[in-house]
Amino acid sequence: MVEINLGDKVKCKITGFIGIAVAKTEYINGCIQYIVAPKVSKDNKFPEEISIDENSLEVIKKKITLKIKEEENGGSSTKGIQMRGF
């Protein structure tokens, strides 16, 4: 079984529904479902997300991960501490 990560583009093997996995729900009985959000329609309406069992999903495209370069923001501010009365 392929591991599904949030942000992956997935497809339901049964219905053909395609969207992005935006949430994961794991029930006490072991059932795992993903909430899948489809693309926004041409008239900019947000269609409803649906819950689909993990076993019914296949990953079409893995999410893109970006590496963010951490930059210094100029150092810490001591002025803010004095303004708060510390």
CATH 2nd-level architecture of the domain at 1-35 and 46-65: Roll
CATH superfamily membership of the domain at 1-35 and 46-65 = Hemimethylated DNA-binding domain
- Extended strand count: 5
The mean pLDDT is: 83
Give the ordered list of helices and strands.
EEEEEH
Draw up the topology in text.
Elements: E1 9-12, E2 18-26, E3 32-37, E4 50-53, E5 57-61, H1 79-83
Antiparallel strand pairs: 1-2, 1-5, 2-3, 3-4
Describe this protein's structure.
With 86 residues, this protein is mainly beta. It has a domain at 1-35 and 46-65: Hemimethylated DNA-binding domain (SH3 type barrels), CATH 2.30.30.390. Helix content is 6%, strand content 33%. It contains one helix and five strands. It has a five-stranded antiparallel β-sheet, with no helix packed on it. The model has no long low-confidence stretch (mean pLDDT 83).
Which key phrases capture this entry?
5 strands; 1 helix; extended; SH3 type barrels; mainly beta; 86 residues; five-stranded antiparallel sheet
